[in-house]
TrEMBL record:
GTP binds at residues 58-61, 86-87, 130-135, 174. NCBIfam families: GTPase_YlqF (TIGR03596). Transmembrane segments: none annotated. Residues 13-178 form the CP-type G domain. Keywords: Cytoplasm, GTP-binding, Nucleotide-binding. It comes from Wansuia hejianensis. The lineage of its organism: Bacteria, Bacillati, Bacillota, Clostridia, Lachnospirales. This is Ribosome biogenesis GTPase A. It comes from the Bacteria.
């Protein structure tokens, strides 16, 4: 997979983030709990600098429980407070607000010394496309304050949004980085839907996902599709899934496109299982 994608609007997004940092007390960085390394912008430290920051492991309900804990420990060692979040049902919001109050305590005290009481915390939410920023904002606001969509990159411009809690949010469009140096990063982003399927070979992508799942969660594949994997190749497994699901076309051939869409959709929705695709490396 050769992806080298840096549209002009994403360059402008980075510039807007850097320009607006002075307006906020806190940066809330959303990453995908299934792929924390791949979904974290490698430029984030240089962009945010010393601004207080909370790392939110979103979609934690789709990831492996023990892996979530390992990633929390990893970020803790780096001095970054983290919270596990399911932005769809709001689980983790209370913990997020508690952390927001802790990391902005000094700023709020400075406001109080100047006679400004109960001033809302101003926070900027950043993250790559399709990581759940708009869903989190809508949950906090208790309304459809930000546009959402199934395709990455729906949010187009900065918008201030008031919430149900003592927080004002500055939403920003999803920001990617100039180049995917690591093939695995590109694949992980594609597996989870952060890269538009339209620019990819969907059948090869699903085959790559099956190959990875055979290595890290074979029992999940076997249980979901009621197949035995044994020493099967990814293609053998894909064929078995197709046969089980009745994805057959004329001549008895497997409809690989249909199988690919089933596997990718069910992985992204957590139907195959709670699976984390990458784990932290000690020392990095």
């Amino acid at each position: 997979m050769n992806i080298n994608w840096y549209p002009g609007h994403m360059k402008k997004t980075r510039e807007a983030i850097e320009k607006n940092l002075s307006l906020v007390d806190l940066v809330i960085e959303l990453i995908d709990a299934r792929i924390p390394y791949s979904s974290q912008n490698p430029l984030i430290d240089s962009i945010v600098k010393n601004k207080p920051r909370i790392v939110v492991l979103n979609k934690s309900d789709l990831a492996n429980y023990e892996s979530n804990r390992r990633w929390q420990d990893y970020f803790s060692v780096k001095g970054l407070p983290t919270v596990l979040l399911n932005s769809v049902n709001g689980k983790g919001i209370d913990q997020l607000m508690k952390l927001a109050n802790i990391v902005t305590e000094e700023k709020r005290k400075s406001y109080e010394k100047r006679g400004v009481i109960n001033k809302p915390i101003r926070a900027m939410i950043i993250g790559i496309p399709n990581v759940g920023k708009s869903t989190l904002i809508n949950t906090l606001a208790g309304r459809k304050g930000a546009k959402t969509g199934n395709k990455p990159g729906v949010t187009k411009s900065n918008q201030w949004i008031k919430t149900k809690v003592n927080l004002e949010l500055l939403d920003t469009p999803g920001i990617l980085w100039p180049k995917f140096e690591d093939k695995n990063v590109g694949l992980n982003l594609a597996f989870t839907g952060s890269i538009k399927d339209e620019i990819l070979d969907i059948e090869t992508l699903a085959l790559n996902l099956i190959e990875k799942l055979i290595k890290i969660a074979p029992e999940s594949l076997e249980k979901r599709y009621k197949i035995g994997i044994n020493n099967d190749t990814p293609l053998d497994t894909m064929i078995k899934i197709g046969e089980k699901r009745g994805c057959i076309i004329k001549g008895g051939e497997v409809d690989y496109t249909k199988v690919a869409n089933i596997v990718l959709d069910e992985f992204r929705k957590g139907i195959i299982g709670n699976i984390t695709l990458e784990l932290p490396v000690i020392g990095e």
